[in-house]
Structures are given as C-alpha cells and as structure tokens.
Fold these 2 entries.
Entry 1:
Amino acid sequence: MKKTLFLFLFFPVIVFGNAFWGKTGHRVTGEIAENHLSGKAKRAINDLLDGHSLAFVSTFADDIKADRAYSKYSAWHYVNYPLGMSYADSDKSEYGDIITAIETCKSAIKDKNGSRKDRVFHLKMLIHLIGDLHQPMHVSRAEDKGGNTIQVQWFGQGSNLHRVWDKNLIESYGMTYTELAMELQNVSRKKRKEIQLGTVYDWVDESHELCADLYDSVEIGEKLGYRYSYDHNDLLFAQLQKGGLRLAKVLNDIFG
Ligand code: ADE
Ligand code: ZN
Ligand code: ZN
C-alpha cells in the first residue's frame, strides 16, 4: 500500500487510538446484561439477534466504524461537555451524541412499523452505547478529545488517558470477558435495584463526574503501571457492573 494512502486511511486510528471501551469491556457489559434479562426481553432479543449473545453483538458499533458508509454514527459513541456542568445544561452537538443516539435507538427498536433490519441495527447499537456511557472518558471534555490527546505511558509503552480507560487497565488485568462477568454479576437484589435507579440523564452526569476525577489522576507524560491499576481497578469493575445491570434495565423496559 502506498505510504500516503496508508496514512490517509489509518491516521485517525494512529492519533486517537481506536476510541472505544475495548472489546473486553463491551463483552462484559453484554454478558452481565444477558443474565439479568426478563423472560420476555430474552425471547424478543434472541429472535432479533438470530440467537447471538449480547456479548457477541456488543462490539458491532465499533466494527463498522472504519466503514465510511457508517461515518455519521461516529459521534454516537461519546459526549463532551464542560466539567462541572450537567448534560441537560450543555450545548448539544449538531452531529448528535451518545444520549440522543440512545434515545434514537430506543424509539427505533420500539417502532413496530419499522423494518426488522432497522430494529436489529439499533438494538446492536444500543447494546454497545450503554457500555460506552459507563466508560468515563466517553463522557468527557472536548478540548482533549476525551483524553485522547493526553499522552501518558502504560508500562513503558506510549498511550493516552483515553486508551488507558478503553483498553490498558482492563487488558492488564488479564481476565477474559466471561471470567470478569462471572465475578461482577453476582449482586444482591438490593444493590442491583440501586444501580438500576435513575435514567440515562443521571448516568451520563455520573460518568462525567468520574471523568473529572480521572483528569486529575494523571500528569501529562506520566509513567503509569501497577500503582495506577491498584488505585483504579475498583472503579473499572464498578463501571462494568453498572453498565451491564443498566443495559439489562433499559432492555427490560423496552421489551416489557
Ligand atoms: N472523540 C472526541 N471526544 C471523544 C470522546 N470523549 N470519546 C471518544 N472519542 C472522542
Ligand atoms: Zn464505542
Ligand atoms: Zn474510547
């Protein structure tokens, strides 16, 4: 491949990383949600997904990202607004954001007159987006593209704050998505109900507040490793757990 063509095609990936809650994170939220679906939701989803699991389809929205035909969906994965502000009070992007996207998905899935293809597409997108909503750097600040331009080192390798939270932390833990889901999904009914309280508007502001702390957790160029993991793994696991349980709640509400 010509060097210029290579750079043209892959420049955004080189500069900003892959920009998603890595595959493992999405599969964990999908798997936890799968195990908290109502019977009715399970049957309806099983039909729409042709028997595939939530974990399996959870990465679809990232898998289509490199395809130009889907470029209008790239703004759906995140939202940026000033720290200290609520989503409700913030200026909205003309391209949409993770919250407007989630609402669009919910309406499309519920639309009984919509085509099956359209309902399946939006279901797969929704399963992914509720995961992204719980990656704090996806509910973030515009100036640094959700931490993508904040360079740090991860165990001696070049990385950035966004990528640490998409991939580095979860991958360095070294558990598969099923192992993580098994660990995180055994929650008391009381705790599950607490986590599932609220709406996506509450959840987006919660992620945004966590994101503000994460900006304070690193210095530009800092060498991160074990200490950062020790300090942040509990938050990582809590976010994965919330993502899974809330995805189940959203799907149970849609499918009755
Ligand atoms: N691009 C710009 N801001 C972003 C964010 N918060 N998350 C992912 N990609 C982004
Ligand atoms: Zn994403
Ligand atoms: Zn990301």
Entry 2:
Amino acid sequence: MKILMCPPDYFNVEYQINPWMNLNESIDHAKARKQWETLYQTLINCDAEVSLLKPVEGLPDMVFTANPGLLYQDSFILSHFKHAVRQNEVVHLKAWLTDAGFNIANPDDFASTPFFEGGGDGLIAGETLFAGYGFRSDKQFYEQASYLDQNKLVYCQLINPRFYHLDTCFCPINEDLALWYPGAFDEETQKRMAAKIELLDVGEEEAYHFACNAVVVNNHVILPGACPKTKTLLEKRGFEVSVCEMSEFLKAGGACKCMTLRLD
Ligand code: ARG
C-alpha cells in the first residue's frame, strides 16, 4: 500500500475552522514531531510505502494530507476547500501528483464547483464511495461530478460539528466492515450506511478521541490513543492493532487517518 504524508514542520493552530481548534491552546511542537514520526514508522513497519510531500510555510494544516484530494478509481479528484486558508494546499498536492504521473479527474475547474475536502469526506470501501457532506463538503459536489459512478455512492450527512469530516466518525476496515460513531449521522444516513456495510459501533467517549480516525494497512489497524474498547473490538475480529498517540494533532481536529492520503 502506498501512502502520502507531509512532515509537521509548520504544523500549528493559527486559525479556527473546526470546533477542536482553540487559538488559546498551544501546540507542543517537539511532541507533535514525535507523534508524527511514530505514525510514520508504524506505517513503514506495516509494510506501507510512504512518500512525503514537502511542507510549506504558511500552510499549518498541510500535515493533514487526507484533505486536498482523493484517489478515485484510476485518478485523483482535487479538493475545493471550504476555507480559503487551506486552498493553497491543493496547488502543492497537484504539483506533486502531476510530477508522480497521476491523472487528475477534475481539470482546473475547482473554483467553480461546490466544496469537497478529499479523503476527509470521501471514503471508499470496495466499489462504494461513502460521500460525506454537511460541514466541509457539499452534497452537490458529488451530484455534479460526471466522473463519479452515481450508482455506487452512499450519501452520508454529518450533523455534529465535532465530527465535521466523514473520516472523524467512519472508517472502512475492508470491503465489508467499518467502524462508525452513529451519533454523528442523521437517521436516514444511518440506515443507508447500515444497508451497505457491516458497522462496528464506537462509543461516544472513544469517538471523541477519534477512534474512527484509524489507518488500515491490510490486516493492521492503527488507532489514536485512549481508545481501548475499539482496540479490543478490532482484535476480537482478528485485526492487529497498533496505537499512536495523537494529542497534539487532536488540537487541530485531526488524528492518524487525517495525516495519510492513499495513493493506490
Ligand atoms: N485543522 C484541519 C481542518 O480543520 C484538520 C483536518 C483534519 N483532517 C481530516 N481528514 N479530518 O481542516
């Protein structure tokens, strides 16, 4: 499995675009660096191939590579970030992807499309795209994108601002199984999701520790800290679980999964 990450050289909380970000709370940068490196090393130990995007000064959220794009079938969909402060990240991802030989599905029209935040809101299990919307991405984005297979979309409306991206409350483990925090979704969405995939419930407390923001590499699941029940749940289902402490990144509203972008 190939993954793109971006080192936390300029990571910081400099603006507030989700309820986790608090300008009065400071980041321990040495700790953040260690946490990022532990995640990186854990992925390598799971045999993932990790490429690195060069961090850019002035883009404090660039460490969250899940957001500026999404690999869909054979090409990348570039994001249209809701908040201007993150929009330049797409320029850097696009340059990297073009250089690496990836096709782009939505050539240069992103300023005119509705909002979409990449792997933060678009999650794939088998052939299904779980299409998150409500806070950062717009439902219309998916409806209008001609390159999306409309028959294989499951619309997921988010209703709790703490779970503003789909990857904060839903995590496909494989084609047939996923973790979720049902409280993040409206009832209709819950039914649609349950009809498509088997769902393992994460309780409220661990959901707030971002238990659903896990990275899956084959049979291995990497969870943020303070999620022991989720760990046991996954182990009972035969998965190997590693834990990576993410306290500094939670202050920005992100954890393990947010810092990875799938490249294959
Ligand atoms: N501070 C970032 C933002 O609000 C965090 C992004 C987290 N990424 C994710 N995939 N959920 O945009």
